[in-house]
Structures are given as C-alpha cells and as structure tokens.
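Example record used in the benchmark description.
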Amino acid sequence: MPLREPARSEAVEYARNDLPGDVAWHVDYFDFISDLELRQRIGQEFYAARYLYKLWEGLRVDGNWARQAQVQLQVQQYASIYEASIHHLLFVEAADAPEVQRLFEYETLIER
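Model output (structure tokens):
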C-alpha cells in the first residue's frame, strides 16, 4: 500500500530536491559511453542510487540494520555502475590498445 497524500508527494519532492537533474541529466553524465543502450541503463542506475539514498536519508530509520542495508545497497549499485563503465571503456573503447590486449595474455609453467 503506497503512502497517503500528501506524505507521498513530500517524500518524492524531498528525494528529488538535491538531485542536480532528472533521469536524462544522469544519463548524459555518462556521455563518454558510446553504447547508447548501456549509457541509458547506467544513467538510470545512477539516478536510482542517488534517489534511493535521499529516501533513506529522509526516513532516518534508526538501527544498525538500516545503516547496513543502506550502505550495502549503495555499494552494490555503484559497483555495478563502475563495472559496466570500466568494462565498456576497456573492452570496447580501448580494445585494440596493447595494454588491454596484454590482459588476455598470461604465462604459465608447463611440466615436461
């Protein structure tokens, strides 16, 4: 069951107040990602992470479990964003760079 008005509108307004822009702004933040679909997904995840943080902050739920849940959610969201960005930059944008090519090479000892 959703929150009743005006509590719902106040919560939404509170969460959006400190964000620098809407979802489109957060998508454009990743303009260095050439894959438009990936940029859209990363931007939406970035917006969601910041929006959810503001909701948690506004609720001010006491307890170690609440802080742990908030931190865990943020770490997972930002790790996902970093992973997708780094993977794209390395293996799409810089795929032909010698440093990236060497990531696929490794020496191993062979018993003879």
